[in-house]
C-alpha cells in the first residue's frame, strides 16, 4: 500500500512538472543571482534552470558592474540547456530587447532618449542607449565642428533618434538636434528682449573674413566688417579679437530666421557730417593711400573719410598705366578735392592737380623757335616721338624731318635711343601736343638762299652736272635743273654738251616753288627777255633797223 502511495505521489509530481509553463527559448525571463564567482554571476531563472552571465554584461560602458547575490535581474534565454546542463542566458541581449521596445516608443513619440558616447568609429561615434548601440554621425555631435570629443565621452546626455531599423539593428541619433532646439528656445527668449537701435554689450565669439560673430548672451549677431568703423577695415582682426567685450548697436532683427545684424560705427559720430565744410572744392590735403585697384587708388583723408583718385587724375604724362606703378599702399600723398557727393558718400580727388601742367610749363620755358634736344622714344608711320623735359613727348612729323628727302625715306635714318635736336614749332596745352621740326634746326636754307630772288630775276648759277636732258646747276647751295629746251633761244644751241661743269651761266628765274624747294630757271627766257628789252630801247617796228643792228647797238652800249 505504501509503495502504491509513493508511486502515485511521484506520478502526480511528474504530471505537475509537465503541466508547468516552461519559458520559451528566445524570450526574456526573470532570475535571481545566487552566486558571484570567477567574473561571472550564477543566476537561477526558475524551472530548475541555472545559467552563467559575465559580470561585464551588467556594467554600463566605462563603469564597473554593480551586482550582488540576491539581486533580481532580467536575462535573455538563448537555450534551455547546453552541454553542461546549464541554461544559456544573456543579460546584454535582455537589455537590448528591453531597450529596443523603449526606443521604438520614444521614436514614435519623437521623444528624447538618454545615452552615453562610448566609442569612436569611422564617420562618427557609438552611443549606448541603455542596452542598444546607436551611431552618432560626426556632423550631429554639435552645432559647430568638434575638434576634441574627449570631454563628451561617457557623459550621460539626451539624444534625438533620427532613424532606426530593428530588423537590421540600426539606430542613428543626433546630439546636435537637441542643442539646436535648446538654442532656438534660448535665442527666441533673448531676441524677444532686443529692439532695433538698442545698444548692448557682447563678446566676440568668432572672426571671419567678412565680419565677426558676437555673443549677446545666448544668441549670436553678425557684425559685418563694413559696420565696424567709418574708416576702411581690410580685416576684422585689425580692430577685434576673440573673447573681447564690445558695445554694439542692434541694426536689424529678422524674427523668422532669428538673424541679428549689429554695428559698431553707428555708436560713433559720422565723419561725413562735416566733410563738405572741412574739404572745400579745389582745396589740397595730405592723405594716405589705403587701397589700389585697376581704376584708381583710394586715399584716406581722415578715419572714415576716403576719396578716389581715378587713374585719369593721377598723372599728367603717364597714360594707360596701372595705378600701382604711380602710387603704393600706405604712401602719403597730396591730393586736391575735385567733387563731393554727400548722398553717395563719395569724394573725387586729383593727384596731378597738385602739380603744374607740364605742357604749360614747357610752353613758358620753350617758346616757338626754341631748339631742344631729346631722345627718340618711339618711331611710327607718321613721325618720331622725342622725349622732352618734364617727362613729356614732342612729335616730329614726317614732313618736318628733312628738306631734301621724302619723309618716308628720311625717317629710316633714325633709331630708338638716338639723340636729336629739333625746333619747337607749336605747343597746344589743351590737347597736350608739342610739334617739333628737325629740318628747321639751323634755319630754312632754301628761304635764306632765295630770299631776294623773285620770278623774272636774272641770277648767275654754277653748272654742276651735264645730263642728256639738260644741265644741273647750283645757286647758293640750292640745286636746280635746266631742261634742254631752256638752254637756248636758238634750237641749234640747245645742246647740253656745249656747257662744262664749273661754268657760270646767267639764267632767268621762271618760278620759285617753296613746297618743292626748287627754282625754275631758263637761259632761253633770259635771252628772249634781253632781246625784247633791246628792241624797246634801240629800235621800233617802223625804224627800218635790222635786229642785228639793234643788238649790236645794245651790246656796244653795254
Automatic annotation (TrEMBL):
Domain of life: Bacteria
Keyword 4Fe-4S on entry: no
SUPFAM superfamilies xref list: Nucleic acid-binding proteins
Domain S1 motif span(s) in chain numbering: 26-92, 110-176, 197-265, 282-352, 369-439, 456-524
Task of the protein: Binds mRNA; thus facilitating recognition of the initiation point. It is needed to translate mRNA with a short Shine-Dalgarno (SD) purine-rich sequence.
Family under the similarity heading: Belongs to the bacterial ribosomal protein bS1 family.
NCBIfam families with a match to the protein in the record: PRK06299.1-2, PRK06299.1-5, rpsA
Protein name: 30S ribosomal protein S1
Amino acid at each position: 500500500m505504501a509503495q502504491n502511495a509513493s508511486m502515485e505521489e511521484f506520478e502526480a509530481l511528474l504530471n505537475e512538472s509537465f503541466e508547468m509553463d516552461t519559458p520559451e527559448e528566445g524570450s526574456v525571463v526573470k532570475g535571481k543571482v545566487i552566486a558571484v564567482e570567477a567574473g561571472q554571476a550564477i543566476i537561477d531563472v526558475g524551472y530548475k534552470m541555472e545559467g552563467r552571465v559575465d559580470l561585464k554584461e551588467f556594467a554600463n560602458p566605462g563603469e564597473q558592474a554593480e551586482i550582488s547575490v540576491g539581486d533580481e535581474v532580467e536575462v535573455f534565454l538563448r537555450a534551455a540547456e547546453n552541454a553542461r546542463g546549464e541554461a544559456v542566458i544573456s543579460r546584454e541581449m535582455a537589455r537590448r530587447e528591453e531597450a529596443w521596445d523603449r526606443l521604438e516608443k520614444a521614436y514614435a513619440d519623437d521623444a528624447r532618449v538618454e545615452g552615453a558616447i562610448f566609442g569612436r568609429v569611422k564617420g562618427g561615434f557609438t552611443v549606448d542607449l541603455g542596452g542598444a548601440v546607436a551611431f552618432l554621425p560626426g556632423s550631429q555631435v554639435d552645432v559647430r565642428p568638434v575638434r576634441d570629443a574627449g570631454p563628451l565621452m561617457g557623459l550621460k546626455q539626451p539624444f534625438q533618434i533620427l532613424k532606426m531599423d530593428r530588423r537590421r539593428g540600426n539606430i542613428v541619433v543626433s546630439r546636435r538636434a537637441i542643442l539646436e532646439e535648446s538654442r532656438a528656445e534660448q535665442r527666441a527668449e533673448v531676441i524677444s528682449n532686443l529692439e532695433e537701435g538698442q545698444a548692448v554689450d557682447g563678446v566676440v565669439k568668432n572672426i571671419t573674413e567678412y565680419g565677426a560673430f558676437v555673443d549677446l548672451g545666448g544668441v549670436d549677431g553678425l557684425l559685418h566688417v563694413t559696420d565696424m568703423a567709418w574708416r576702411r577695415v581690410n580685416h576684422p582682426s585689425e580692430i577685434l579679437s576673440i573673447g573681447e567685450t564690445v558695445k554694439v548697436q542692434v541694426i536689424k532683427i529678422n524674427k523668422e530666421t532669428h538673424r541679428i545684424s549689429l554695428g559698431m560705427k553707428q555708436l560713433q559720430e559720422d565723419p561725413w557730417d562735416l566733410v563738405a565744410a572741412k574739404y572745400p572744392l579745389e582745396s589740397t590735403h595730405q592723405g594716405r593711400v589705403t587701397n589700389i585697384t585697376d581704376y584708381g587708388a583710394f586715399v584716406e583723408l581722415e578715419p572714415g573719410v576716403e576719396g578716389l583718385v581715378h587713374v585719369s587724375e593721377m598723372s599728367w604724362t603717364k597714360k594707360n598705366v596701372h595705378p600701382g606703378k604711380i602710387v603704393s599702399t600706405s604712401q602719403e600723398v597730396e591730393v586736391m578735392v575735385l567733387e563731393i557727393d554727400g548722398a553717395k558718400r563719395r569724394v573725387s580727388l586729383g593727384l596731378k592737380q597738385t602739380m603744374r601742367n607740364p605742357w604749360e610749363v614747357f610752353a613758358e620755358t620753350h617758346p616757338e623757335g626754341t631748339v631742344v634736344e631729346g631722345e627718340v622714344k618711339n618711331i611710327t608711320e607718321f613721325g618720331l616721338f622725342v622725349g622732352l623735359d618734364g617727362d613729356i613727348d614732342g612729335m616730329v612729323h614726317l614732313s618736318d624731318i628733312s628738306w631734301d628727302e621724302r619723309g618716308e625715306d628720311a625717317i629710316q635714318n633714325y633709331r630708338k635711343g638716338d639723340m636729336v635736336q629739333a625746333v619747337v614749332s607749336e605747343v597746344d596745352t589743351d590737347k597736350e601736343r608739342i610739334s617739333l621740326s628737325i629740318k628747321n634746326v639751323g634755319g630754312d636754307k632754301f628761304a635764306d638762299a632765295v630770299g631776294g630772288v623773285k620770278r623774272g630775276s636774272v641770277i648767275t648759277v654754277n653748272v654742276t652736272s651735264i645730263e642728256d636732258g639738260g644741265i644741273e646747276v647750283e645757286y647758293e647751295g640750292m640745286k636746280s635743273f635746266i631742261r634742254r629746251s631752256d638752254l637756248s633761244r636758238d634750237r641749234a644751241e640747245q645742246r647740253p654738251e656745249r656747257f662744262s661743269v664749273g661754268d657760270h651761266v646767267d639764267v632767268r628765274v621762271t618760278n620759285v616753288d617753296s613746297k618743292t624747294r626748287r627754282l625754275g630757271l631758263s637761259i632761253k627766257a633770259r635771252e628772249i627777255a634781253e632781246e625784247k628789252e633791246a628792241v624797246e630801247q634801240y629800235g621800233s617796228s617802223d625804224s627800218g633797223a635790222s635786229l642785228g643792228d639793234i643788238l649790236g647797238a645794245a651790246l656796244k652800249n653795254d
